[in-house]
Structure formats: structure tokens, C-alpha cells
Amino acid sequence: MQHFKTLSAYLDYLELPSPEHPMLSVFNSKGNGNLPCPKESSPPITNDCYSISFKKFVKGKLNYGRTKYDFTNGALFFIAPRQVLQWDSSVVFEQKGFSINFHEDFIKGTELAQQIKNYGFFSYSVNEALHLSPKEEKQMELIASAIEIEYQNNQDAFSKDIIISQLSTLLKYANRFYERQFLNRKEFSTSLLEQFNRQISTYLETGLLQEKGIPSIEQIASKMLVSQRYLSDTLKKETGKTTTEHLHLHLIDEAKNILLQPNKSISEVAYELGFEYPPYFSRLFKKKEGISPTQYREKYKLN
């Protein structure tokens, strides 16, 4: 897989103009021009840069999880360093919007370098983009225009600090708008929870728990065609519980069924559920149920 260590090399591969700054590039149509058009398709590649791009669709539907939406409003995409990128020509965008790319070293040693790690949307895949309302779109365009103005100005001792401050503002607004998107997509969130529950139920019913152990959230998310971070954020907003908590609830329910078999020891029950360490299973059971597995048996007189 080809990897690009510099912003210039990455933009050159995309067949885009060279950056004005070695670690920062800003393309902005300002609503009256066209963005430079990158190559139509690419095999998997990686790079050391962050990318923030706002575009509108002309043709094609965007997969949002397993659901297809035909968006007429704009979509904001966030790409983190070393995220695998691959695309084809099936989706066509308007050549309007903005694209901001900056090398990870551009923000090293700044407060933003720490803040950016807390923004989960950089861990989302491109089919989990932020879909903006017209008002949100205008807000983002204003910030992008301010960044472009500073980018095009002659660089001085204040330029970098100003640009980083504006980037921080843009990301804070993005975080706010993602919160809105989670709230507005309750139907989708419910569907995602149902899919998640079905995946775990199927895993338990087909004996994979005994064969392969407890599945990771990453494995489940991959089966659902969403990123692990997006799945976790969505379920947390909808239910107040993390994906791991939901998984544990399924395991505890299954444990109750197995505990009804008095011929099995607590350790055997733990191993059957995929736990490598029986004491951890016992602690988890007590945390969720308020009593130990042994007390649960005694409560139902199963000894």
C-alpha cells in the first residue's frame, strides 16, 4: 500500500495544486468557482495528514451505515492520518465547497494536537459523514473562508496561531453539529441497535462464543459496515450505554441460562461464555446483577 509522508507528495498524487505552505493546503470555491478535481479513483493509500472536506452530491447515493440516503445538502468528511483511503468514480460531487489538508506535524505542540484526539468523527469512515443543514453549511463556509484568507496572506509570526485557532473553532462546530445529527437520526439509531443485537444473538446461537471467544466491538461493527467509533457514539447517544455494556448484557443473560444447569461449576460457565479468567466473569456478573453467580444459583435454589 502506498504511503505519503508529506502533504506535497499526497497532493501531487491526487493531481491537485501544490500547497502554499509545506504543511497546509486550503482549497475553497467560495460558492463562485470550482474546486480542483482530484483523480477519479485510487487503490488503497495512506498519508500523514488530516483532511476536512465539504462537498455536495451531484450523482449517486451515499451509504450511511447500511442505509442509503440521497442527500441534497452538503456533507463534511473528516480523515485522520494513516486512515486507509480508497475511492472510485461511482459517486460524483459538485465542484464547489472547500477542502483543508494539514500535516499532523502542523499542530504538534499546540492545544489542538490534544483536542483533536477527542473528536471521534476522525475515526468514522467516509460513509458516516456529517450532513449539514443550510444554516450549518453557511457557518462552516464562513470559517473555511477565514482560514483561506489567512492561508493566502503573506505568512508572518501570527499566521500559524490564527489558522490553528480557526481550525479549532471549525472542529468545535463540527462536534456540535454531529450531536444534532445523532439526535435527528433516532430511527436510524434504533435500527443500528437492532442490528447490533442481532449480530450478538447470531454469534451466541451459532456457537461462535465457544469456538472463538467473546467478539470484539470492532468485529461486530465490521459486520455491520460501520466504524467502531461511530457505532459506539450512536448507541451511547441513543441508549446511554456503550457498545461494551450492551455486549455484557447479552453475556450476562446467557450466563443466567447456563447457571440454571447445576452440574456446571462457575469456572466452567465462565469458560463457556468465552471469559479467559473466571474471576473477571464473577466480578462482571456481580456488578451487573448485584449478586455473585453463586448467590444467583442459591437464590433460585439450583444447587
CATH architecture of the largest domain: Sandwich
Radius of gyration: 24 Å
Percent of residues in β-strands: 15-25%
Largest sheet: 5 strands, antiparallel
The CATH class of the largest domain turns out to be: Mainly Beta
Number of distinct helices: 12
Low-confidence stretches: 60-71
Q: CATH topology of the largest domain, what is it called?
A: Jelly Rolls
Indicate the structural class.
Answer: alpha+beta
Name the shape in a single word: elongated
Number of structurally distinct domains:
2
C-alpha end-to-end distance: 58 Å
Q: What is the element string, with H for helices and E for strands?
A: EHEEEEEEEEEEHEHHHHHHHHHH
Total DSSP E strands: 12
Overall mean pLDDT stands at 82
Estimate the helix proportion, in percent: 40-55%
Strand order of the largest sheet: 2-11-4-8-12
